[in-house]
Amino acid sequence: MPARSIVGLCGLTLLGLTGPVVAQAPSTGADLKATIALNGFPCDQVVQSQRNADSDYTATCKDGNRYRVYVDAAGRVVVKKL
Fold first, then answer.
1. Rounded to whole angstroms, how far apart are CA atoms 63 and 47?
2. Quick one: three-class SS letters along 9-40?
3. 66 CB contacts (<8 Å, ≥6 apart)?
C-alpha cells in the first residue's frame, strides 16, 4: 500500500474517532437576553424567565429590570418594560 494511501486512511480514521459535532441550541435565557438587547433595552443577564403562553415570556434581568417579550398579531417581536 503506498504511503499516501496510508496517511489518507489514518486521517479518515482520526476524523471518525472524534464523533459527530453537535451544535447546542442557546438557552431560553440567552435568547431572551439577545432579544431584549436587540430592542434597545439593558439586560446583562436573564436570571429568571417564565413562559406565559406560546411565544410570550416574562424575563427578569440581573440588574432588576423586568420585561415582557412576545410576538404580536402581526408576527413582530415586542419587548415591553414592566
1. 9
2. HHHHHHHHHCCCCCCCCCCHHHHHHHHHHHCC
3. 58, 59, 60, 81, 82
Beta bridge partners of 74: none
- Contact in structure between 67 and 59 (CB atoms under 8 Å): yes
User: What's the pTM?
Assistant: 0.68
The answer to whether 46 and 60 are in contact (CB under 8 A) is yes
Cell of 30: 440567552
pLDDT digits (tens), the chain, 82 positions: 454 444 444 444 544 545 555 555 568 999 999 999 999 999 999 999 999 999 999 999 999 999 999 999 999 999 999 9
Closest Cα partner for 64 from 78, 45, 51?
45
Residue type, 4: R
